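Tutorial handout. Part one gives the primary structure; part two gives the three-dimensional structure as tokens.
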Amino acid sequence: MFALCAVFALALCGCGGKGGSSATESEKAGDVEVLNAALSQELTAVDAYSHGLPLLHGEALAVARQFRTQEQEHADGITRSIRGLGGATEVEKNPLDYSGLKTKADFFSLAYDEENALIAFYMNAIPKLETSGPRSMLAAIAANEAQHLVVIRQALGARPDELVPEAFETGEAPPPEP
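Part two.
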């Protein structure tokens, strides 16, 4: 499904900026800068999930693998969008401290923090984009990250009424209390 969304987003990249007019080179360059920052965030998430996999078993392992795959799909879609705007990918993943990552609970706490950071990043980044394709794609990615948070909240022991604690997901909600 995401591949279809990415193709749609790429098709929109060349359809012009706000109001249907063609995006200028400076608007495209600005979008490439935002998208490169998004790519860095996604590569960091892929790395975080990769580090957590050895700590997991059964259903938790299957979910973490699925989420890692989805984060890689996000990174791939963002890369295609950058190239569709005529830009180059110029990113590195953000450094994370994995020294405290020893248990399943440690991993889910780290994953919670990373998913929250992704949502907060996208809520800030989307309004900065000038072209509609990348805006649509980042909105779809943000929605997926919010879905991840619900599952992670459940893994951290949240009650059903704590799975979606607010009407508006901002990436700032604290993890559920154990």
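Part three, for discussion. The domain at 24-162 is CATH 1.20.1260.10 (Ferritin). Residues 116 and 171 are 4 Å apart (CA to CA).
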